[in-house]
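User: Sequence in, structure out. Go.
Assistant: Echoing your sequence, followed by the C-alpha cells.
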Amino acid sequence: MQVQVVLAWPERALSVVLDLPPGSRVIDAYRASQLQAPEGERFAIFGKEVDGERLLQDGERIDLLRQLRLDPKLSRRQRVAAARQRRQAAS
C-alpha cells in the first residue's frame, strides 16, 4: 500500500511517499516518514482531521497539521471593518 505524508508551509512543502503493509495506521505512516509535526501530532486526510489510529487506504495523503497563526473568523471581521472604514472615508 502506498501513501504520501505531507508537511506544508505557505512558501514550501515536504513530501514523503511510503510503501506500508496493509493494516497500517496514520501514526505508523507519520513515524515512518521521519517528518516532524510542528505542534503536536495532528493529522488530516482529504481535509478532515483524523485520529492517529485511523487505518489507511492505498493512495491516501496524510497532511501534518500546523496551528493557525490567526483565527480565520477574526481575520475576516478585521478585513470587513477595514473595508467599511475605507468606504466611509471615501464618501
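User: And one key feature?
Assistant: The radius of gyration is 19 Å.
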